[in-house]
Amino acid sequence: SEVMAVFCLATDLMDLKARLGRMVVAYTYDRKPVTVHDIHAEGAMTALLKDAIKPNLVQTLENNPAFVHGGPFANIAHGCNSVEATTTALKLANYVVTEAGFGADLGAEKFLDIKSRYANLHPDAVVLVATVRALKYNGGVPKTELTEENLDAVRAGLPNLLRHVSNIRDVWGLPVVVAINAFPTDTKAELDLVAEECGKLGVNVALSEVWAKGGEGGEALANEVIRLCDQPNDFRFAYDVNDSIKNKVEAIATKVYHADGVDFTPKAARQMAQLEEQGFGDLPICVAKTQYSFTDDPKRLGAPEGFRITVRNLKVSAGAGFIVALTGDIMTMPGLPKVPAAEKIDVTPDGKIVGLF
């Protein structure tokens, strides 16, 4: 996970090497960190990544250029593509759209507070992607019934979307458009309801139909993005990076998640003191949290209130340049199926590999 984060935050090959060298891989008996540089391994690691650090230029079905480069999970890492891809794209186009994974409480927070801070990026606008189906799910509808019109469920799920909207504007000071990723089962009444409620906050909604219509289906959204980019904004970070670890975690929890506060387990409190003693206290915070909820409980949907965040573990990703705060029961190796795909892969007696697809 950290190697991917290092790879995505590096600005060039030598920065990649330096970041790899700063990675902490062990501790001495007296709790002094041992780095990759200490064991003289950063050169070999950089050699393995020498070509991988070059952004991958691909094209869409309509022959538009795009970079697909890097993939740290936003629930356990910083959730953004590489700095190299973003900065290269900015040299080649008038407008660059980049993705930050999962919700605005995870991907957007980390793009704005970690990646933008390190890469000196000043975003012009935010596209907040939503679906009517997700709103109904947050409104309490089981997944098997999401294709049926249900205005009450949309209305019940809207506070989740509106909290993300207000966070973008009030915490980071950026203009935002809500892009509704259209599904064939969405009804006009449901779409109108979303537009009406977002409009009350002064935020426009654009229907994105690119899946069905290609570029033509994204023109309305593109025009709104251009309009927002032409407006001045008051971009700012959610916290002062030079503040204490405790205060930075609490700033994210209270401002972005809308928690009442943060509880640190005794183990996390000891780790926090050790990290500050070792000189890592001025690093940004990367919260490892479920992507299903503003809280650290994946079952609490919508826009919960009256909750606290529990930090059970703190560790430094010194190469990436942030401190990971693990909350709730979060796996640091997500996405693994109960039956690994590797079990289906084999080699026949004549040397043919089978089971890859």
Describe the structure in your own words.
This protein is of the alpha/beta class and 357 residues long. Helices cover 36% and strands 16% of the residues. It has helices at residues 2-9, 13-22, 42-49, 83-92, 104-119, 132-138, 151-170, 188-199, 210-213, 219-229, 245-256, 266-277, and strands spanning 24-27, 33-35, 57-59, 65-67, 126-130, 176-181, 205-208, 261-264, 285-288, 308-317, 322-327, 346-347, 353-354. It has a four-stranded mixed sheet with strand order 8-10-11-9. A three-stranded parallel sheet has the order 5-6-7, sandwiched between helices. Strands 1-2 form a two-stranded antiparallel ribbon. The model has no long low-confidence stretch (mean pLDDT 93).
Order of adjacent strands in the largest pleated sheet: 8-10-11-9
Helix content: 25-40%
Largest sheet: 4 strands, mixed
Number of contiguous helices: 12
Order of helices and strands: HHEEHEEHHEHHEHEHHHEHEEEEE
Separation of the first and last Cα atoms: 26 Å
Q: Layout of SSEs?
A:
Layout: H1 2-9, H2 13-22, E1 24-27, E2 33-35, H3 42-49, E3 57-59, E4 65-67, H4 83-92, H5 104-119, E5 126-130, H6 132-138, H7 151-170, E6 176-181, H8 188-199, E7 205-208, H9 210-213, H10 219-229, H11 245-256, E8 261-264, H12 266-277, E9 285-288, E10 308-317, E11 322-327, E12 346-347, E13 353-354
Helix pairs in contact: 2-3, 6-7, 7-8
